[in-house]
Amino acid sequence: MRVLVTGGAGYIGSVSAEVLLREGHDVVVLDDLSTGHRAAVPEGASLEVGSYGETTAVDDLFARQAFDAILHCAARSLVGESVRDPARYYRDNVAGGIALLEAARGHGVKRFVFSSTASVYGTPRETPIREDADLRPINPYGETKRTFEGALAWYAEAYGFRSVSLRYFNAAGASEALGEDHRPETHLIPIVLRAAMAGDEVTVFGDDYRTPDGTCIRDYIHVLDLARAHLLALEATAPDDPRTGKPAEPAAALVCNLGSGRGYSVREVLTAAERTIGRLIAQRVGPRRAGDPPVLVASSDRAREVLGWTARQDSLEAMIDSAWAWQRRHPEGYAE
Ligand code: UFG
To answer: Each residue of 220-236: pLDDT tens digit?
Structure first.
């Protein structure tokens, strides 16, 4: 397959591109490098610097190069920022995403895998969360991802797009070469590891939740497991694959959660990191962070049954070990 990976210089996009290349596929990365890193584009992939929302440039790219499928990982993805500046999220995640879909439609590229998020559920009524749970996002980030998922469903019915939206829970860990380097960093595991390296203190955002130790519980999933799921999802969009369209019926948009089905609290993450690093990590309890649901744990039954996917590296230790190994090799993150 020849795949266009938007956001292929970012954390999940780069590792997914790396896995696609390893499986013998051709990869072109489209990334404007606003949050991604040139050094994260895996060897063997070619890089087009630009935004998926720039209609003329993307149209030109499709005219120059033929693609079998699109893996759309690029997006704005900070919950807090989305609340402060929703316009940016609607412009990039919705309007930009539709510009990409339109360019793809114009050039007959109708296989699409989309990076969605557990944020589409908001604060779930039940856990583990199944895909048919109510979608009630509590921030513009989740809302814009839900909106784009909706567009994919209608593009399937009307224009024959075959798509899979993957609702990620909490991506963690690293491959040998590629890891997590957000600036600013907001995610728990890299924050904990950087604090440990610098001798700084970690702030636990609230310990008065209704959970066993009072801190929030999340479902962490190894980025290499996520990457493998992208490959399986791309395969499921093949022409004639019944998972995204049965004969004589309109094409279909499939949605799958990706998590390990097991939750860990913030305190458990800190304890696991202390075990990996071999020393205590300074910590204090601060106020709750706005918009944090107490528990987010996925049911991944559908991903297993439909995509044939399971998390292989589902121990928190494996994720933290690999993130720590990458961090030690890249104490300043990617060189720019
Ligand atoms: N946390 C702290 N201290 C920190 C950072 C985080 O206590 O310094 C806590 C958070 O409050 C939360 C947990 O650690 O309870 C995990 O926080 P992350 O920011 O690592 O991850 P989130 O669960 O908030 O969000 C992530 C992605 C979103 C995605 C969501 C879906 O960043 O894009 O998972 O579950 F939508």
So the answer is: 999 999 999 999 999 99
